[in-house]
Design a protein that fits this description.
Blueprint (H helix, E strand, L loop, with lengths): L6 E12 L2 E7 L10 E6 L3 E10 L4 E7 L3 H8 L5 E8 L13 E6 L3 H13 L4 E6 L4
Parallel strand pairs: 7-8
Antiparallel strand pairs: 1-2, 1-6, 2-5, 3-4, 3-6, 4-5
GO molecular function: oxidoreductase activity
Pfam family, one: FAD_binding_6
Protein name: FAD-binding FR-type domain-containing protein
Length: about 140
């Protein structure tokens, strides 16, 4: 897939993470995103919005984690397994990953901002890095 070409993909799985947050999984082959990159997600008839990639495996299963905050994210929340979306990417720069595994790595994030850090944390772990993570959250 060329990064700037929209590819139509079928949703293979949807995870209801918590109230107002879903993870949408779809398959893309031929390119492998890096932690920190994003995609443009197109919902036909609604809009196109940028979304961080929250996971990607060797089989080409990509994930975006979506908080319902507007018209396009609401439309994404209404989609079902086997529905189609348009995907353009991966785009943008990736997170810096130190060349040596003896660096002290500290991940800090909060709320929906943890989604792209999940992808980074999984990559660091499978690559043999050690790291610490701190997560902030809103409480009522």
């Amino acid at each position: 897939m060329t990064e700037n070409t929209i590819q139509t993909v079928k949703i293979s799985r949807i995870i209801n993470d918590c109230e107002g947050v879903k993870t949408i999984i779809f398959k893309i082959t031929g390119t492998q995103p890096k932690p920190g990159q994003f995609v443009m997600i197109w919902v036909p008839g609604v809009d196109e919005v940028p979304m961080s990639i929250s996971a990607c495996d060797e089989a080409g299963n990509w994930a975006i984690t979506v908080k319902n905050v507007g018209e396009c994210t609401e439309a994404l929340h209404e989609l079902k397994v086997n529905d189609y979306i348009g995907v353009r990417g991966p785009l943008g720069n990736c997170f810096y990953i130190p060349p040596h595994k003896d660096y002290n790595i500290f991940l800090v994030g909060g709320g929906i901002g943890m989604a792209p850090l999940r992808f980074l944390a999984n990559h660091l772990k499978t690559s043999g890095y050690t790291f610490k993570a701190v997560q902030g959250a809103k409480v009522e």
